[in-house]
């Protein structure tokens, strides 16, 4: 890196030395991202389980105990409630146990929860297993983005930071495909096997340097940073930046975590994170996914409903893979713009289709339209508003309050998930299918304005730079001097 001191209006030519190293993503960082992403695959599998499993679970020829429609709804509904509890407790856990140890601690409950479900002789065992699984999902969904945000270098944080979402979608797809051939018990045994490679790989990676610094263990932080950046990397400048950022946060901190959250400087990034979580869930993704089968039927499709869910899983995965390739080139905001516009157009289109259909007009000539709109909607969501709120949660929340703030954001996300899922049928009864899609589309319009005016671009910035900017600690230069350091990465 060549650093020059120059006036803002000065034009210079310069030559970069040939031996100047290019910032590279080390194998260690990839291994760290892959390890936590396998945990996200378990989360995805857990989230998708009820969709294929409930059908065979309600079949008395397969299941020795009765699962009513009411108890079946709780098999699905208890997970976001337990996820809410996991989100609340996950914040203190990642502060006291560390990011790595908290993630590691979810593996055993995941295995136990799946074995409880697989060996269930009563619906209560299934509910307990789903609750334990949901709690682990809540903790994991909070701690995974925080770990990656604190370990991966800025140049590739977007790409590697989306790996958990990509693997989460692989977990969803795996569950849908396996669910076509397995009953609920066999599917649960498969779920119990998934955390094992995740558990083994997590022992190979270090705790985050920023957590070590927060505990005054600078030597351990240096070792962790050296492991992540490579043996030959000079980690001193980055380590000094982490220590300085922590010291600044300590000077401005109070004795109460909640009081820290309410400070104006901390409240801004927290509210941005909450806003992203709100618009993620109020885009109607869970409600639209819930309505998949009906959309396919209204399109005149004879495709098997299990195959429909597999199509959803494939679309999810492809979109996230595309986002992984683009996020460090286009940036977070551009992908959010594309995502939001795609959802607005498709939701309004779906609303228009159902309005015309419900008014009694013949829509057979455009029977393909809802299916096409649905696929584009899922693509749009998975490209931006699906993964980026979680990625940015690990980026924009200040280090001192990252645990407690991430806890609040995760709990809020699960609360929105539960509300949207449980009220969807009531909303349709109140304003009709078309009105429901138009409502979600209108919320996406507001979400677009929110992204334009309030969400910062974090592409290529270190966590310390993001924190200083978000908290207003950027030193303003005199307009007379107007001299600033320029960094050229070649």
UniProtKB/TrEMBL annotation:
<feature type="transmembrane region" description="Helical">
    <location>
        <begin position="30"/>
        <end position="51"/>
    </location>
</feature>
<feature type="transmembrane region" description="Helical">
    <location>
        <begin position="270"/>
        <end position="290"/>
    </location>
</feature>
<dbReference type="Pfam" id="PF00083">
    <property type="entry name" value="Sugar_tr"/>
</dbReference>
<keyword id="KW-0813">Transport</keyword>
<feature type="transmembrane region" description="Helical">
    <location>
        <begin position="334"/>
        <end position="356"/>
    </location>
</feature>
<dbReference type="InterPro" id="IPR050549">
    <property type="entry name" value="MFS_Trehalose_Transporter"/>
</dbReference>
<feature type="transmembrane region" description="Helical">
    <location>
        <begin position="185"/>
        <end position="205"/>
    </location>
</feature>
<dbReference type="GO" id="GO:0005886">
    <property type="term" value="C:plasma membrane"/>
</dbReference>
<feature type="domain" description="Major facilitator superfamily (MFS) profile">
    <location>
        <begin position="32"/>
        <end position="459"/>
    </location>
</feature>
<feature type="transmembrane region" description="Helical">
    <location>
        <begin position="368"/>
        <end position="392"/>
    </location>
</feature>
<dbReference type="InterPro" id="IPR005829">
    <property type="entry name" value="Sugar_transporter_CS"/>
</dbReference>
<dbReference type="InterPro" id="IPR005828">
    <property type="entry name" value="MFS_sugar_transport-like"/>
</dbReference>
<keyword id="KW-0325">Glycoprotein</keyword>
<keyword id="KW-1003">Cell membrane</keyword>
<dbReference type="InterPro" id="IPR036259">
    <property type="entry name" value="MFS_trans_sf"/>
</dbReference>
<feature type="transmembrane region" description="Helical">
    <location>
        <begin position="404"/>
        <end position="425"/>
    </location>
</feature>
<dbReference type="InterPro" id="IPR020846">
    <property type="entry name" value="MFS_dom"/>
</dbReference>
<keyword id="KW-0812">Transmembrane</keyword>
<protein>
    <recommendedName>
        <fullName>Facilitated trehalose transporter Tret1</fullName>
    </recommendedName>
</protein>
<dbReference type="GO" id="GO:0051119">
    <property type="term" value="F:sugar transmembrane transporter activity"/>
</dbReference>
<keyword id="KW-0762">Sugar transport</keyword>
<dbReference type="InterPro" id="IPR044775">
    <property type="entry name" value="MFS_ERD6/Tret1-like"/>
</dbReference>
<feature type="transmembrane region" description="Helical">
    <location>
        <begin position="437"/>
        <end position="455"/>
    </location>
</feature>
<comment type="similarity">
    <text>Belongs to the major facilitator superfamily. Sugar transporter (TC 2.A.1.1) family. Trehalose transporter subfamily.</text>
</comment>
<comment type="function">
    <text>High-capacity facilitative transporter for trehalose. Does not transport maltose, sucrose or lactose. Mediates the bidirectional transfer of trehalose. Responsible for the transport of trehalose synthesized in the fat body and the incorporation of trehalose into other tissues that require a carbon source, thereby regulating trehalose levels in the hemolymph.</text>
</comment>
<keyword id="KW-0472">Membrane</keyword>
<feature type="transmembrane region" description="Helical">
    <location>
        <begin position="71"/>
        <end position="91"/>
    </location>
</feature>
<feature type="transmembrane region" description="Helical">
    <location>
        <begin position="310"/>
        <end position="327"/>
    </location>
</feature>
<feature type="transmembrane region" description="Helical">
    <location>
        <begin position="103"/>
        <end position="125"/>
    </location>
</feature>
<keyword id="KW-1133">Transmembrane helix</keyword>
<dbReference type="InterPro" id="IPR003663">
    <property type="entry name" value="Sugar/inositol_transpt"/>
</dbReference>
<dbReference type="GO" id="GO:0015574">
    <property type="term" value="F:trehalose transmembrane transporter activity"/>
</dbReference>
